[in-house]
Design brief:
The longest helix has about 45 residues. This protein is α/β, with parallel strands linked by helices.
């Protein structure tokens, strides 16, 4: 099998070595302009701090203290910028970069203000800080536009090959997400075309996407791409993500990987539960006035303010989730459990459109978290009827139930309301593979970013009752079964 890739391989490897220096300079250039961004954003804050706050605090921080405050803002901005992908000029539109950087500026400024308040026991005037944040936002727009223009005038898009088997259409996503400037799709061969003539498919490639390819063929291609210094992007399969949770060990004088069902440490579970109790309790107290207003507005439209719906949590246990009512009382009078089709769904009430858009309808679930039925972060709980439909075509969907259901989760932050069950499963397994408080905090902060992004709440297509593409899943299932029989033989 490996001999299939021998022809022309040495020539491309030599080409890869020549490009290595250029790639190193490319990465250094990117790091430099990202550092420049962090410095530019920090300058208005530093000017504000030294020009106003430093001499007006009851307990001045003096020279080192003032420098530490400015340094703290700089570090916080970089941390939040990474959480919100605020520096990835090669993968995001200018508007997305500006939005992400403004969020990072806002959180960094808020934390500095809160720390200053606590340390000085005096409520500082917030207006100068707000002014500096606006100035930083303006600099963000300038940087994003300039960096985007300079980068794409300096670097040509990467010649890209999309290799597929069970899953097609990734080239359309490249264009729809505005990544045509980053990836120049030069070919979209089927995996078997690559095996027939690998050099013709890979010789000009700088990047390769692998979509829905069986692990045997995929691993062969990956090895050759790495040897040829071609960057590879892989849409994983369920087994790949289960392997991510493997623990490396040695047994019988052999390297070995040990896998087991989701089994986090007791320390993690205790910390997670304490965090759930504190965060949900505090949030309920702070948000109670808003929740009362929302409840009254829902009552004005008719019907009860809350509704209970049976959902699934860890190990398939059933519980009743609480939500603000966003649909009419008779939304499912035919007895069929169905997802929303989005803005055009006539079952959604006037106030329901608003609370669904900004996710306020989920706030009563803080009570579920306080009771221990849910966690702040975890796979979103699914309705038993819909989960059963998904599992008929995708039995692995039940693997999401290894962890307690959450108010927000990996699939909610990086997916959409109408993301397919297979992709939601993959994203939830990414979270389950690496449980940590740091990851939970990252997801919580990242959730803020999607609250005002309309595409995150896109509904399913009219005529669908779930997000499952039945025809595609059935075809994939048949192909996997046929392919698995081939490898067993």
């Amino acid at each position: 099998m490996d001999d299939m890739f021998g022809k022309g391989r040495k020539k491309q490897i030599n080409k890869g070595y020549r490009e290595f220096g250029e790639n190193t300079r490319h990465r250094a250039w990117l790091r430099t302009i990202k550092l420049l961004n962090a410095i530019m954003i920090t300058i208005p804050f530093a000017a504000c701090w030294y020009g106003y706050y430093a001499d007006r605090l009851y307990h001045p921080f003096w020279r080192r203290g003032n420098f530490a405050v400015v340094g703290m803002f700089f570090v916080l901005y970089i941390i939040f910028g990474r959480i919100y992908s605020a520096f990835t000029i090669t993968l995001h539109r200018i508007s997305e970069l500006v939005y992400s950087q403004c969020l990072a500026i806002a959180f960094s400024g808020f934390i500095i203000y809160a720390v200053t308040w606590l340390l000085t026991r005096h409520l500082p005037n917030p207006l100068p800080l707000l002014g500096s944040m606006i100035a930083s936002g303006i600099l963000s727009v300038i940087w994003c536009r300039a960096a985007h223009k300079i980068y794409f005038s300096r670097y040509e898009p990467i010649p890209t090959v999309i290799i597929w088997d069970m899953r097609k259409g990734l080239e359309e996503l490249v264009e729809s997400y505005g990544l045509g400037k980053r990836f120049n799709v030069i070919d979209t061969p089927n995996v078997w075309e690559v095996f027939k003539d690998p050099d013709a498919c890979l010789s000009q490639a700088g990047a390769v996407f692998l979509c829905g390819i069986h692990s045997h063929e995929r691993n062969q291609i990956i090895k050759q791409c790495i040897a040829r210094r071609i960057r590879v992007y892989v849409i994983p399969r369920v087994g790949d993500l289960l392997m991510e949770s493997a623990h490396s060990m040695h047994m019988f004088h052999l390297p070995m990987l040990m896998l087991e069902r989701y089994n986090p440490t007791p320390e993690f579970l205790i910390l997670k539960r304490v965090f759930d109790i504190l965060s949900s309790g505090i949030a309920l107290v702070i948000l109670s006035p808003l929740m009362i207003v929302i409840a009254l507005l829902i009552r004005r439209d008719g019907g009860t303010a809350f509704y209970r719906q049976k959902r699934l949590t860890k190990d398939g246990r059933e519980f009743y989730v609480l939500k603000f009512r966003s649909m009419r009382m008779d939304a499912e009078k035919d007895g069929v459990a169905r997802l929303s089709t989005g803005e055009n769904d006539d079952r959604i009430t006037p106030i329901g459109h608003f609370i669904r858009a900004v996710r306020i309808d989920e706030l009563p679930q803080l009570i579920n978290i306080l009771k221990g039925e849910m966690s702040v972060v975890g796979p979103r709980p699914e309705r038993p009827e819909i989960a059963a439909q998904y599992e008929e075509e995708l039995p692995e969907f039940a693997l999401r139930l290894q962890a307690k259901a959450g108010l927000t989760g990996y699939a909610q932050v990086y997916g959409k309301y109408n993301t397919t069950p297979r992709d939601k499963l993959l994203m939830d397994l990414m979270y389950i593979a690496h449980p940590s408080i740091a990851e939970d905090l990252k997801i919580i902060f990242a959730t803020v970013k999607i609250l005002f992004l309309p595409e995150s709440t896109e509904g399913v297509d009219p005529g669908q009752v779930t997000a499952l593409d039945y025809e595609n899943e059935a075809n994939q299932k048949k192909k996997w079964e046929k392919r698995d029989e081939h490898w067993v033989d």
